[in-house]
Amino acid sequence: MSFVPPNFSDIGKSANDLLGKDYPVGSAKLEVNTTTPNGIKFTVTGNKDNKSGLIGSDLKAKYVDKPRGLSFTETWTTTNVLGAELELENSLAKGLKLSLVGSLLPDKGTKHAKAGVEYKQDYVFTRTSLDLFKGPTILADAVVGNNGFFAGGEVAYDVSDAKVNKYCASLGYIAPLYSVSLLAANKLSLFTASYHHRVNNEVEAAAKATWNKATDSSVAIEVGTKYALDRDAFLKAKVDNTGRLGLGYTQVLRPGIKLALGGLFDTTRLQADVHKVGFSLTFEA
User: Fold this and answer.
1) How far is 95 from 116, CA to CA, in rounded Å?
2) Where primarily located (predicted)?
3) 109, 205, 224, 251: most buried, per Cβ within 10 A?
4) Backbone angles phi, psi at 273, to 5 degrees
């Protein structure tokens, strides 16, 4: 049986998504997505912080040429950051993706550019990127696996200083209905164990435990669940060892319109003004 392991950044993704996504707390967000007949997708997002009242937004346009495996994305934010990304996938070779990402802040002259190469096939997923203006720094990672088991590592090397800035390692197992992973990050000082289980078509569960060896802190634990009410709505709930309770509700109001409500509550200080609520509204056309 063929098996393509996840890329290093996606290790533990199922658990992270269940515990982190669909909780729009502390802000009000609006997102509008439209697609032109020739395949250009426009995305406009606006976000208002409930505490500060600050509003931020960005405009993104993405063009995809599927036959050639080419995509080009442009972004422009209210902080006047201009960004662009060019990707070429499965064109030169199957499983090979080349990318170039850049951004510019004209007011300050701040520039960022990164070139990347990604290659995946059965049993291996490897990536390398070069940050041209930061160091330059080379970031490389690789994950190998077979029959659901996988192991991987990541390393960052600063060319100008001739030193390794960071290194990480991970291992885990992926099955059709569940996955487990262990990640050692920050030079093997921050350990995270995660677990995700699709119990049935309606119920999912996840848990994550984190321990920072550098601070000798206690283990932080977070557990959560997702329950599908029907094909258009689901509930989410999570709680951590500090007593913070997160609740989320997502509903497709009609085709192309989705509403998400979220709240984060400190159950140890119910009378204090520390709780956060928010919502997001997404339009797709």
Assistant:
1) 14
2) mitochondrion
3) 224
4) -90, 65
Instruction: Count Cβ atoms below 10 Å from residue 189 Cβ, excluding itself.
Output: 12
Residues β-bridged to residue 97: 89, 118
Characterise 67 by phi-psi region: left (phi > 0), alpha (psi -120 to 50), beta (else). Answer: alpha
- In Å, how far from its chain's centre is CA 34? 22
Predicted TM-score (pTM) of the model is 0.91
Residue 226: CB atoms within 10 A of its CB come to 23
For residue 192 the two structure tokens come to 């995270």
Q: Which domains does the chain have, with CATH numbers?
A: 8-284 (2.40.160.10)
Identify the three-state secondary structure at position 211: strand
For residue 68, give the 3-state DSSP assignment: helix
Which of 275, 274, 280 lies closest to 249 in space, CA to CA? 280
pLDDT, one tens digit per residue, over 250-284 is: 999 999 999 999 999 999 988 888 899 999 999 99
Q: How far apart are CA 212 and CA 79, in angstroms?
A: 34
Answer for the pair 197, 206: CB distance below 8 angstroms, yes or no: yes
Q: Which residues of the chain have pLDDT under 50?
A: none
